[in-house]
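Appendix B. Raw example, untouched.
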Amino acid sequence: DGFSVCRLAWQSAKYQYAQCAPLRFNEGPVDSSPNYHRQMGAWPINPAIIDYTLSGDGGLVADLENFPVIDEKVLEEASTGTNLLMGLHVIEFLLWGLDVDDPEDITVGYRTFKDYDLVDSSDVIIQRRRMYLKVLSAKLFADLTVVRNQWDPTAIANFREEFVGQEVNKAMKQILTGLGTLSRAEMAERAIDNVRLMGIEENEISAYSDHTIFDLIAMNSGIEAITKGSYTAVDGTVTSGLSLVALTALYDEELSNQIIAQLELNTEAIDAIPAPFDYQMSQELVFGDGPIA
């Protein structure tokens, strides 16, 4: 059905977006002004300000008084501080809803297609929810297009042209900063350790769809692609070039081999975490350290 197709499209888009995570944290276009990552992929979100929850009043979707119209301008103005009203994870919540069951039940959010089914054409809330999702999708596509164009090798006067034309040491610093910040601060600490130690399921990357383990796999895949200099697109197209490990080997072959070995260990560690992430987290909170720890 159409609702399932939307969910599958989100999962595909989220995986590919997460693969690009190593291109963050290094003065690139996704973290520029405006902060496109905040508009596209920031997490966690507060679902209560977006739509109905078990204890909420319906959020923006039901707030006709303060938000009589739902459009891009309204969302941009209302998305301040921690109030995130745009991006992949808001779309995720609108497609899945809250995952309120016990992690041992291994369920995803409880939302169904009925939240979008206009059986009664006069149902204002469903009309607004449909409009919200439509506006979010269009905004996400527009923002992704802006960032993609900044990396377009056929374009001129964009970020890619500036990046490849700059002094080598500065470019290397940007690459290594992105890889290091993602692997340690974003993945190891924020996405894994903080969630495990706090035991708060809602702080997962993709808490409503149980897609978190695939986010981690995708981010690790992005690190490998940049380090090894080879990326395989969803259509099978392979893009390759001089890799970090090959460049390192020119000066220190032993260090290059150590980097390759560490990449393999990282992949093995992430692959060892069972899906869904919240279930494994709940088991480790009760029984002690496991693959996540």
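End of appendix B.
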